[in-house]
Amino acid sequence: MPDRAAQKQALRRELLERRKLLSPEDAAAAAAVLARRALELPELGGAGTVAAYVSVGREPGTRALLDALHARGVRVLLPVLLPDNDLDWGAYEGAQGLVRAGRGLLEPAGRRLGVDAVREADAVLLPGLAVDARGMRMGRGGGSYDRVLARLAGSAAHRVVLLYANEVVARVPVEPHDHPVHAVVTPDGVRRFGPGVRGGPCGPGAPDASGGRPVSPPGPA
Ligand SMILES: Nc1nc2c(c(=O)[nH]1)N(C=O)[C@@H](CNc1ccc(C(=O)N[C@@H](CCC(=O)O)C(=O)O)cc1)CN2
Ligand SMILES: Nc1ncnc2c1ncn2[C@@H]1O[C@H](COP(=O)(O)OP(=O)(O)OP(=O)(O)O)[C@@H](O)[C@H]1O
């Protein structure tokens, strides 16, 4: 039986291959719906500061969402990847303030706010490759957002991952450093996790399906 890290790697490869099959048209349509659903989240409604990210490649698109939040007057923080894979942060001031960085990323060109700036966010939108019925998330493997979630431990910030519907699965492999998120938004809907939510970390009746199979899509927002 392979260890958890190897299981994650295999699942990552499979999910990235699936994203590659998306046509630009499908990706654009998904991004438009995702932005609308995310903007409807009550968790974002009262947020003065939101930490987000600039989608790249076939990631669920965030550009329209960033612009809508910025236009609302929300302070939007974007990650800057550091050499050790930790994340610094900078403010989003519009697309003209983004610069190309390594790994195909787009990052804010302005002042760096430090790794702890994410703790000023009322809501944190996270990239990922999958989330499971407990709210456990799997990312690209750099551990960048594991560190963000560790920094947010005990804070009230809403932690929301943005995915495609098929990336909400029954179980992802979990390691001791992993932390759950509160919700996932996909073009199909919103699903929340947590105490009192069926299938959440402390909720009753968490399904124990064998790893990786998609579960039913989230219900309407
Ligand atoms: N949009 C975005 N920004 C992010 C992340 C992310 O997952 N997505 N990160 C999450 O931690 C951090 C950067 N970590 C990253 C780690 C690996 C790759 C990566 O594998 N890139 C591909 C090319 C991109 C693509 O076309 O999919 C590569 O290098 O081959 C990208 C970002 C911070 N910013
Ligand atoms: N709090 C932390 N501080 C430093 N390193 C960490 C922390 N949490 C996890 N890591 C390291 O990050 C590496 C990748 O972890 P994992 O495979 O869970 O990443 P991931 O969740 O897929 O990626 P990401 O968080 O970037 O989306 C592991 O080697 C792990 O030891």
List the ligand species. Answer: ligand FFO, adenosine-5'-triphosphate
How many domain modules?
1
Number of contiguous helices: 5
Distance between the termini: 39 Å
Text of the CATH class: Alpha Beta
Strand order of the largest sheet: 3-2-1-6-9-11-12
Largest sheet: 7 strands, mixed
What's the number of extended β-strand segments? 12
**Residue share in helices?**
10-25%
> What structural class should be given to the helix and strand makeup?
alpha/beta
Q: How confident is the prediction overall: mean pLDDT?
A: 90
Can you tell me the CATH architecture?
Answer: 3-Layer(aba) Sandwich
Low-confidence stretches: 202-221
Q: Round the Cα radius of gyration to an integer and report it.
A: 16 Å
Could you tell me the CATH topology label.
Rossmann fold
Broad shape = globular
Order of helix and strand elements from N to C terminus: HHHEHEEEEEEEHEEEE
Name the beta content range. 15-25%
- The CATH homologous superfamily corresponds to NagB/RpiA/CoA transferase-like
